[in-house]
């Protein structure tokens, strides 16, 4: 029993290393530079161990983005616990979340999925699941009920806006402009909610 537990722990550790190395690779090298060989090397595991856990690069990358996405949502929840509860603070928190390395890695995955039907199916599922989680968290943080007229659209527009801001941040540091837009949008959102 103890041996099985150690094997299970090692297996989880190997998967975690692979997923973290995959996200690092996506952020640094993009989709085309993220190979299973490069990921296994960065993770410090054998190619066989990598193939045991993930048969294809698409599986590996989708699992990595999902794993890091779930972790990031937990970090976002923890930050929300100690953050100020104003609309501005909530929008800023969500915007900062989207301006992270996770977004960069996910963006690489989305672009690759555009021309890869198998990967597209995985990404659509992942995007929907993470999108629902972040949407629900936004409702909770803003302390609003999306059955009220206009709330659902306002919260979804907020999420779409911060994704657009995160996209603008990919080529150059856009923090100053993002801060201005977040302040402006928070005032508009406050009036809507």
TrEMBL record:
Keywords for the protein's UniProt record, in alphabetical order: DNA-binding
Tagged with keyword Glycoprotein: no
The entry's DNA-binding region: 35-54
InterPro entries: Homeodomain-like_sf, HTH-type_TetR-like_transc_reg, HTH_TetR
Superkingdom as given in the UniProt entry: Bacteria
Residue span, HTH tetR-type domain: 12-72
Full protein name: TetR/AcrR family transcriptional regulator
Taxon lineage: Bacteria, Bacillati, Actinomycetota, Actinomycetes, Pseudonocardiales
